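Entries read chain and fold; for instance:
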Amino acid sequence: MPTDDSAAERNKKIIRRVFDEFVNKGVFSVVDEIYREDMIDHQPLPGAPEGRPGVKYTIAGLRTGFPDLHVTIEDMSAHADYVVIHNTWRGTHLGDFLGMAPTGRPMESRGVVVWRLADGLIAERWGIGVESNMLAQLGMRRLHRGGRTGRLEAAAGSVAAPVVNILTIAPGKADRWRELQAELAGPRLAEYEASRRRAGIVRESFWLQHDSAECVVHYLEARNPATAGRRLLGSQTPFDSWLRAAAHEIYGTDPWALLADGGTAAAGHAWTLPVELVPVDARG
């Protein structure tokens, strides 16, 4: 029976094939070898069908729009059935992309991707930051059905940098965490949005992970994450003070103080628990 370490290395090799053979070289047959038929891509290109055909559709669209597309894996970690990578996408807009005629613009986009594997095959993918930054460089943005994410993205005028941190919920505070998400998505939404605009934050979400301990993936995009963190730390507005105190009660730390220290996704990623990912955005 393979050890956890050997299983993690096997999964990392599978994810490397995604980029070494499929994305960078256009060997589409690889998809049938390493993806489940019912694979779920949470950030496909618009119009993509479900399953393996959707995976091929998305990369075909990207390679058509950016014929010289090349992805570099900057960092990779694996635990149980999950693999997390930081990568850089580079290419030149020389073909039609989502209805936009070629502009000849070079594109370089950085982001984080979380993969879940099952029985040695890719089962799910969450792309964080790659697509939004790519579209922003072309003057495009994906439209959302209202909610905080859509409004904050529309207010941003420049490419944002992604930051990912893992936060552990203190014992007995899981219900308080859920209450806080409901408050931010409901009665305090307007205050929350105004606060994020002041700080220069484009997008912020929390992904809850369930296990014997509960952890949250805190994902944030800001034009300058360190500056955003310092603005929040130095803010004396009642809402900002209330939110930081509530977060400290739940996590035992101030999530936005980590931004002020200058940490970004490109600097490294601490993925600690082999658990099930349940996406929970700030809308609850």
About this structure: The chain has a mean pLDDT of 78. The domain at 1-142 is CATH 3.10.450.50 (Nuclear Transport Factor 2; Chain: A,). The chain has two domains: 1-142, 144-284.
